[in-house]
Amino acid sequence: MIDGATAAELGIVQWAFDSGELSEKVNAIAEHIASQPREAVMRAKACIAAALDPARDGFAEEIEATRFLGSHAEARTRIAAFLARSK
């Protein structure tokens, strides 16, 4: 067993917080997810569920979700903004 900070250093987890910060951080993450386009969140959740279900082809579902979302103007705008910040 390892603690959360070590897990974060090893790249096993995305975040690690002190217990006193947990509620605040969870609320911030939830607010961020809630601010995203509904269809994108739904597709992401479906892909996560597919990864846990051996009867589903999670890779194919992820490719289809990416194609579907990429066809929307809002997605293209967000991608362009992200790429502009990356330069």
List keywords for this structure.
87 residues, mainly alpha, 2 domains, 0% strand
Give the topology, please.
Layout: H1 4-10, H2 22-34, H3 38-51, H4 58-70, H5 73-86
Helix pairs in contact: 3-4
Would you write up a description of this structure?
This protein is mostly helical and 87 residues long. It has 2 domains: 1-35, no CATH class; 37-87. It has helices at residues 4-10, 22-34, 38-51, 58-70, 73-86. It is extended and about 40 Å long. The N and C termini lie far apart (40 Å).
Distance between the termini: 40 Å
Beta-strand segment tally: 0
The rough form would be described as extended
Number of domains: 2
Helix % is over 70%
- The averaged pLDDT comes out at 91
Largest pleated sheet: none
Query: What's the helix count?
Result: 5
In brief, what are we looking at here?
The chain has 87 residues and is mainly α. Helices cover 70% and strands 0% of the residues.
